[in-house]
Design brief:
It is a single chain. Helix 3 packs across helix 4. About 60% of the residues lie in helices and about 10% in strands. It has a two-stranded antiparallel sheet with strand order 1-2.
Length: about 110
């Protein structure tokens, strides 16, 4: 087992990458949208939510600060049911991640 580090920079760039991937697959997400109403807007709502979060997000060394900023912004800018779900998830990650130091240190298993 190895020890790896996740900094605010890693979280920031990971979130940007995820945002780009959501946008890339917007149409597919719209097509598979069936709950709670098959209105075909899940991809659109997710893209709008992520874009609003990214627009105000600034890179920071502090992983805790990035998690907090993502959660706060997602609560403010959630669009549709999918945006509310994203908001709930980011808030949970932000409040349940024990950030006692900068950066976050995680023990992860790295396959060779």
């Amino acid at each position: 087992m190895t020890v790896d580090t996740i900094t605010g920079f890693h979280l920031y760039h990971g979130f940007l990458s995820g945002s780009f991937n959501i946008a890339k697959h917007r149409e597919h997400l719209n097509k598979i949208n069936v709950f709670p109403v098959p209105d075909g807007d899940t991809g659109n709502n997710m893209v709008q939510t992520f874009r609003s979060i990214v627009k105000g997000l600034k890179s920071n060394r502090s992983a805790g600060k990035i998690l907090e900023d993502i959660a706060d912004s997602s609560l403010e800018h959630a669009r549709g049911n999918s945006g509310i779900i994203i908001s709930g998830n980011t808030l949970t990650v932000s409040t349940k991640t024990p950030v006692t130091e900068i950066p976050i240190r995680l023990k992860i298993s790295v396959p060779r």
